[in-house]
Write a structure and sequence with these properties.
The N terminus is likely disordered. α1 crosses α3. The chain is of the alpha+beta class and about 650 residues long. It has 27 helices and 18 strands. It is globular and about 90 Å long. The strands form three sheets. Strands 7, 8, 9, 10, 11, 12 and 13 form a seven-stranded antiparallel sheet that branches. A hairpin with a 2-residue loop joins β8 and β9.
Length: about 650
Amino acid sequence: MCEQPNHDWLSLLDRHVDSAIANPDQIYSLSPETLGGLWADILENQRDPSSTVNSLANLLYRKVREQQLQPALDNAAALRVLPLARDWQEMVQYLGWLSQPPESELTDFISQQFADEQQFDQQLAKAGRYCCAVMAQFSGEAALTRWQQVVSEQFNAQSLILLEATFIPHLSTNSRFTLFFFGQGYFKAGEEDPARQLSEDPAYCSFAYQALRQAIAHLEAIHTQPATYRADGAFSVEEAHVIARAARVAAWRDERWFGEVFPRLLALVCSAPGEAKTVPSQSLAIALGHAVEGVPTPESVLALQRWVEKVRHAGVQKKLKRNLKPAQVALAMRGEYAFRHLSATKNKKQRDTLLKVLENGVYCDTHYAWPAWLEAVTQFDWVADISRRLIWQMESAPGVYHSIMPRANQQWVDCWGEPCTLPDPQRIRLWHPLHVSPSEHDAWQGYLLRQGIDQPFKQVLREIYHATAMQDFSGYTLDLQTLVGLARAEGWKVNYDAFERWFGGYLFVFTMQTTLYHGVQGQGESGELVSYRQSNGRRERIFDEQIPAVVLSEALRAVDLLVSKSALARGETGFVSMKEALDYRRTCVEQHFADEIASQRLILDGHYAQVGDNRAHLATGRVTCLGKPVDLPCPRLEEASGDLLSGEIIATLNRLLSR
């Protein structure tokens, strides 16, 4: 589909029906304005089974929904689209697509929806208070006043909802739409959490502070009056989501008062007066656990870790345990907290958490303030030990970096091991092979190997991936039980037929040709790997050249881990387990290269066959040399019988041995 100068939208649909059905992804070439002009015709033809373009209209409608595309509606297009909305919720969604201030004809149409006061009461119960608040905003002051009255009547016993209602008229239009689209739910780290948008609204930030204080005061009153305590009666489910959202906003802003307020709130809601094995509000305790997982701070993670062990309610404890590990992983993505709340005494949990924060900070391009970093590595011996085994990049001016390794007594060396001085350090970040030239990468590898420095995680020998590897992971037969378990542990979200994970501001989706769910067994074939980023509130597909090289490499490394740990074969397989597949390939290699193995020209090491510095993975066939990909084309042996990868690996090893 190409842009058309005219606005005969139905004609446009007719003209492109055949090519659009054959190539539905052409919808991406339509501008939001063109798509907005098409939307009324898409809706009309989608709902008319006799339409000649019914199939195309259904296809376009589904594509827009699946890819979260956002058409742009001018007033004229909106006046055509709004009457086609099935309910108020759909109408508000279309108002969210409005690309210009509403004109009187449009506001008059919306005002007509409020003509029947009894219907408005019903709509508040059916469509929700956030939906009705947006409708009231577009209708005028009288409708907004009516909205507040009805909310007060319907939620008169829920003080947190009443408090929020007093702030909603003062919120920005974007904030009201945010509450409508994301008003209730749990959000994982990296997902489009409404806390991000709401944290930029001063009125909502003021509400968040008051809401958390009011919730604490209410819980304290319950604890001081044990005779009137009623298990799970402190807050409604609706109120729990309001309080948890306020906590996420404060956590996102890292408010100074949050470090004191949140642990107190969690302690009060996870404990009951006396020895009761109940809690004042299960819904709030569970919602706060998800809030920590979605937007962690060091204080909230420590509070969650404490109450996972102390809460007496077995069901709540089970739920909070599920939040704890993802919260610790998510904290690693907020690298600005890396050196906060460290203690002089090293313990395994603290060390592991710091290492996760540092390693994940690489693809987030996390920079650390020089004074905070220097204080941590000079104050704590165990932190100094970690820092001296890693390579860092000091920034002396915007975009000007110097690669260094710390030594004792604030001394530094460069990639050749020579002492160096630091010109006016401002910030510091961890070094990545793709930050520097190949020659500097080689120099650092040589220095660390000569010095025998054992790094706390792979850095100088880290596997690196280039854009060409985006296509390398499709067509593998994977063990689904192993795959799903590993994906969850590594922070991937299982979403029907794909795995999703955020790397900084980029979302990678690894598709599967099968349905995924907890407890799935059997085998499935891997599909394509695609990437997205959020743009103007919607998911926008992007391609490898638009992704920073370090982010792309780290994402592909994570996908390779999933495939290499669960791949049975490429294409069809008779293997029933990963162990059987690896054992078979190891036996093939042993039989084919018995003399080379005896002379140690070829070494079998776990999942790898190694020739010199080159390593071929027995699960995927991928070859690397000291972490760098080796382009060693070998025939795919499509006509061969048996396990294709075994033949390809043998051909690859022959090439390596003959060099």
